[in-house]
């Protein structure tokens, strides 16, 4: 485990870098700048410093959720490569996406060529930042379609076409989650077929997304807290205080669960973290939704209309939260809870 001084130094470097980013340059350029400064060289999951990794994700998300989407995807791609194919070459300054969504009718297929080289054909949807990133790791399928195969691909090549025509988002618009069409594009297999879903890091990485949602909620909650703290006494109503109290309970609960989850993952790096990941994601989703509602009810239309940063975060956060599968995830957690041994809720 890294000493507190090292953790504080990395977080301070990230904070300074975020403050210096050009807000009009876009998240892909912001990611490139963070990579240039070595701020993607962060602890991998389940190696004793998972909380530090999540703290960095949270900090980026509190600054800009579209940037956090690309930063989290970049870090996830690097973690996948480190877990499944250590030693994979990574060009200096490269920026990576992790694209594993499987849209109906949008499956990407591959044909083996020589050694680990493959040819990619088909469409991949929901590829955040694809038009501006240098590389990607994606799931593709062989002709038999039995298991997904991880493939890494350089984006700057013939046969790779990115379109954002289907991306009509207002929230998270800058993440530019477009579609990629492959036509005999060259890629390279990463690990064995099925490795993406079977590895311990799949759920460990999935839990980390909750830190991004928590960061977005913090940005909104801090606007509410500042508005109350700076208001004259006559405007510090019990109604607003109650709203802040509900926000505090929600965010403290999520933060505690994130800390507990990070510790458990570090202590059990090879264990199935699916129930834990589902729990922390659902908790973060619920608290973020509550924060958005409470802030709006307590502050009215003013921050939505006159605070550009708040308005953008309020538009972005609900879209990012839909990376949760809602009732499907609740049902999956319920199934795991029903099968659990012992007393899962005891102190």
Kindly summarize this structure in a few lines.
52% of the residues lie in helices and 15% in strands. It has helices spanning 4-20, 27-36, 50-63, 65-84, 195-198, 201-229, 238-267, 274-299, 302-306, 308-321, 327-339; strands at residues 96-99, 108-112, 117-128, 135-141, 148-154, 160-163, 177-190.
Would you kindly provide a written description of the structure presented here, covering whatever features stand out?
This protein has 347 residues and is α+β, with helices and mostly antiparallel strands. It has three domains: 4-84, no CATH class; 96-194, Butyryl-CoA Dehydrogenase, subunit A, domain 2 (Beta Barrel); 197-339, Butyryl-CoA Dehydrogenase, subunit A, domain 3, CATH 1.20.140.10. 52% of the residues lie in helices and 15% in strands. It has helices at residues 4-20, 27-36, 50-63, 65-84, 195-198, 201-229, 238-267, 274-299, 302-306, 308-321, 327-339; strands at 96-99, 108-112, 117-128, 135-141, 148-154, 160-163, 177-190. Strands 1, 2, 3, 4, 5, 6 and 7 form a seven-stranded mixed sheet that branches. Helix 3 packs antiparallel against helix 4 (65-84). The chain is globular, with a radius of gyration of 21 Å. The model has no long low-confidence stretch (mean pLDDT 95).
């Amino acid at each position: 485990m890294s000493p507190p001084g090292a953790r504080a130094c990395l977080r301070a470097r990230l904070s300074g870098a975020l403050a210096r980013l050009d807000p009009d340059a876009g998240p892909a350029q912001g990611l490139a700048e963070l990579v240039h400064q070595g701020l993607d060289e962060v602890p991998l999951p389940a190696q004793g410093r998972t909380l530090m990794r999540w703290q960095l994700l949270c900090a980026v998300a509190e600054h800009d959720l579209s940037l956090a989407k690309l930063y989290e995807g970049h870090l996830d791609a690097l973690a996948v490569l480190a877990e499944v194919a250590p030693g994979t070459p990574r060009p200096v300054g490269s920026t990576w996406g992790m694209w594993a969504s499987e849209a109906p009718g949008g499956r990407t297929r591959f044909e083996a060529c020589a050694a680990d080289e493959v040819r990619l054909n088909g469409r991949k949807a929901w590829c955040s930042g694809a038009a501006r990133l240098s590389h990607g790791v994606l799931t593709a399928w062989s002709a038999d379609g039995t298991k997904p195969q991880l493939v890494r691909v350089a984006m700057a090549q013939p046969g790779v076409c990115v379109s954002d025509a289907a991306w009509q988002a207002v929230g998270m618009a800058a993440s530019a989650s477009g579609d990629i069409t492959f036509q005999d594009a060259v890629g390279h297999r990463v690990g064995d077929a099925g490795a993406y879903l079977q590895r311990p890091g799949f759920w460990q990485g999935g839990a980390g997304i909750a830190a991004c949602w928590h960061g977005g909620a913090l940005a909104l909650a801090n606007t509410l807290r500042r508005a109350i703290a700076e208001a004259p006494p006559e405007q510090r109503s019990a109604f607003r205080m109650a709203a802040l109290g509900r926000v505090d309970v929600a965010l403290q609960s999520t933060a505690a669960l994130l800390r507990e989850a990070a510790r458990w993952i570090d202590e059990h790096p090879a264990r199935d973290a699916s129930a834990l990941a589902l729990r922390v994601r659902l908790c973060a989703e619920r608290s973020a939704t509550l924060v958005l509602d409470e802030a709006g009810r307590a502050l009215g239309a003013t921050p939505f209309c006159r605070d550009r940063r708040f308005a953008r975060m309020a538009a972005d956060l609900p879209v990012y939260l839909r990376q949760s599968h809602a009732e499907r995830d609740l049902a999956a957690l319920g199934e795991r809870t029903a099968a659990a041994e012992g007393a899962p809720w005891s102190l």
